[in-house]
Amino acid sequence: MKTMFKGVLIKKNLLLILLILGSFFSSQAQNETDISLFMRADSTTYLNEVNSESGDLYSSIGHHGPAVENDWMAIRIYFNHKAAIDVYNKSKPGLELRQARWYPTVEQQKTGWGADYYKVSATVGLGGVRLWDGTKVVFLNPVTNRKARVVKEKTSSYMEMLSEGVPYKDRTVDILMRVTVYSGIREAKVEAFALTDLPVQFVTGINYHKGEEVQNNNGLIATWGIHPEDVAAELINIGAAIIYEPSDYVDKQDDGTQILLISKPGKQLTTWISSANERENELNTMKKFLHSLNIKKYTKKN
Fold first, then answer.
1. All structural domains of the chain with their residue ranges
2. Fewer CB near the terminus (10 Å): N or C of the chain?
3. Segment (H or E) for 99
4. How far is CA 17 from CA 13, 20, 21, 123, in A?
5. Under 8 Å between Cβ of 164 and 146
6. Phi-psi label, residue 169: left if phi above 0, alpha if psi -120 to 50, beta otherwise
7. Are 93 and 183 in contact (CB under 8 A)?
8. Peptide bond before residue 142 is cis, with ω within 30 degrees of 0
9. What is the fold, at CATH topology level, of the domain defined by 31-298?
10. What global pTM score does this model have?
11. pLDDT per residue over 30-75, tens digit each?
């Protein structure tokens, strides 16, 4: 009798373990990321890719460029000469981009939706990519063509922007930017590729505004404070950070609006970006935000 009882108990325990594991792997398999790309003239039709010989669809494309999101933030690349990266911060985890279209109503924001708190202006924003010609920053403009595409995969989503025919030094180059968001990971990966035989020097970095707290460390630049945004229902403190491998760069410059990282000559560059805001209970201060960033995880030397 005892043996039979033990056998039943073992079977029940095994069944319980299998159910728990099944639930765990099922939740892990869910893709908590999304993509968004559409033209304002036909906002009901989502696209996989767009292109423009002028290189400027800023006014005619939805949310001014391709966008991706994870649970904690949405990210867009401006489809114009800036090629800057902008952030949409959320008050609670979840996917909002397809419904909010980057600009939720005041009523939605007051009931817990996120908003466009980040202000890019003329800067690289958060991890945007440009070039360095030895003396100054070179925008990815003019172009012979600019293309954007978005892709949703099993546990991640990414967007790409290809700027073709960019004048650089004594030649033209094609530069590809890719931003990837992952399920279960707050940080987003930013990659730049020079599709050319000769190396280039990339420029990336992070912007900041008057009154913001700035942490400018080796391998990490982070900001916390108010952005002078004019489309959100209210202003709140937001945090932003770029994590980089110091050995990839030859210089760091602060022009008063952004801290720029100038790379060594090469054909590829990778950084990681993250953002948070004061409405998130677990990351509502600069100290908490900094503590959440795993610099070692995203640098080559570690």
1. 1-30, 31-298
2. N
3. helix 97-100
4. 6, 5, 6, 52
5. yes
6. left
7. no
8. yes
9. Beta-galactosidase; Chain A, domain 5 (2.70.98)
10. 0.89
11. 899 999 999 999 999 999 999 999 999 999 999 999 999 999 999 9
